[in-house]
Amino acid sequence: RAVIGVDLGGTKIATGMLDQDGGLLARSQKATAGLQSSKEVISTIVDTIEEVRGQHEIAGVGVASPGMVDSKNGVILNGVNLPDWDGISLQSELEKRLGISVRLINDANAAAWGEYVYGAGRGSQSMVYVTLSTGIGSGLVLDGRLFLGTSSFAGELGHTVIDPGGALCGCGQRGCWETYASGTAIARIANEAIAESAAASQMTTLAAAEGVPVSAKHVFQAAGMGDELANATLEQVIHYTGLGLANIIHSFNPDCIVIGGGVSRAGAAFFEPLLKKTEELVMEPYRGTCKIKPAELKDDVGIIGAAALFVDHQ
Ligand code: ADP
Ligand code: ZN
């Protein structure tokens, strides 16, 4: 039987049907702009599911949502930018409409499960997934099982504090890992360095040529060109990112950490120094126990991971 995954994004609903081996059989996508009520949103989700389903028999529908999700009760708590959406019992609403089992999880947890079953985490026993994006999201697969925790909120590793006197985070705390190692943080650290420096930087030139502010991408580009300020920024960023990864390794002793998100697109210029730094920062007995790998699944990771909740996996 086939399985279906739905990825609820800020701007679109993306839905796909997979076979038991993770092959994408059909895909449908609809914009959420213009939807006026939760009823309309739910109808739109159902439309995408009906579109991809065709005549297939479906084992279940997994739904990945950003923000806080109560997976046990199938309720969205907050975090999705949709009309009258917070507190919606999405699982039971969809089950009523579809007559198929539905499971709801947070998008980072979905991505973690997707990478574990079909991506860079294949064959791993304990894997931690980290997405370095606008913020930092993460998900835990421990001893072969997706670990959700008491309230299904497990894995908010972006909000572990690495500097109590640090920058204010969107969550209200100071010095969260996310304020040091996300794409947004990299841009902030770079811009602070530029403001404080008397010397010109390639980062400024590259950004100006595109007519945009200096972003994480420019830090990596300029560092590759030998720009001193960019390299100093990168060194700082690698240190902070490695600190977070060392905390993860000490906390969960995973055999593998999979890193996705926009920042991971920097490739070897990011991964090579990061692996080295992390090995330096972990305690001796942990050295060599954990592989750090780039994510393999691309834009459809949310769809794939949510659908994979219904795949018979061993
Ligand atoms: P979102 O947070 O919306 O899911 P992404 O996962 O694409 O988006 O992450 C966006 C972040 O990734 C931005 O901070 C951006 O500057 C950064 N980014 C995008 N491409 C690159 C790149 N090639 N190298 C480094 N950082 C990048
Ligand atoms: Zn925070």
Strand order of the largest sheet: 3-2-1-4-7
Bound molecules: adenosine-5'-diphosphate, zinc ion
Strand content: 15-25%
- Biggest sheet, in brief? 5 strands, mixed
Class by alpha and beta content: alpha/beta
Which residue ranges are poorly predicted, with pLDDT under 50 across at least 5 consecutive positions?
none
Query: Could you report the average pLDDT, rounded to the nearest whole number?
Result: 96
Order of helices and strands: EEEHEEEHEHEEEHHHHHEHEH
Radius of gyration: 20 Å
Shape annotation: globular
Q: Tell how many strands the DSSP assignment holds.
A: 12
Termini, distance in Å?
Answer: 17 Å
Number of helices: 10
Helical residue percent?
25-40%
Notable characteristics:
single chain, 12 strands, five-stranded mixed sheet, binds zinc ion, 38% helix, alpha/beta, binds adenosine-5'-diphosphate
Write the layout of secondary structure elements.
Blueprint: E1 2-8, E2 12-18, E3 24-31, H1 38-53, E4 58-65, E5 69-70, E6 75-76, H2 90-98, E7 102-106, H3 107-118, E8 127-132, E9 136-142, E10 145-147, H4 178-181, H5 183-196, H6 202-210, H7 216-224, H8 228-252, E11 256-260, H9 268-281, E12 291-294, H10 301-307
Parallel strand pairs: 1-4, 4-7, 8-11, 11-12
Antiparallel strand pairs: 1-2, 2-3, 5-6, 8-9, 9-10
The structure holds adenosine-5'-diphosphate and zinc ion.
Adenosine-5'-diphosphate binds at residues 133-134, 183-184, 215-217, 220, 261-263, 265-266.
Structure description:
With 314 residues, the chain is α/β, with parallel strands linked by helices. Helix 3 packs across helix 10 (301-307) and helix 7 (216-224) packs across helix 8 (228-252). It has a five-stranded mixed sheet with strand order 3-2-1-4-7. It has a five-stranded mixed sheet with strand order 10-9-8-11-12, with helices on both faces. It has a two-stranded antiparallel sheet with strand order 5-6. The chain is globular and about 65 Å long. It is built from ten helices and twelve strands. It has helices at residues 38-53, 90-98, 107-118, 178-181, 183-196, 202-210, 216-224, 228-252, 268-281, 301-307, and strands at residues 2-8, 12-18, 24-31, 58-65, 69-70, 75-76, 102-106, 127-132, 136-142, 145-147, 256-260, 291-294. It binds adenosine-5'-diphosphate and zinc ion. Residues 159, 169, 171, 173, 176, 178 line the site of zinc ion.
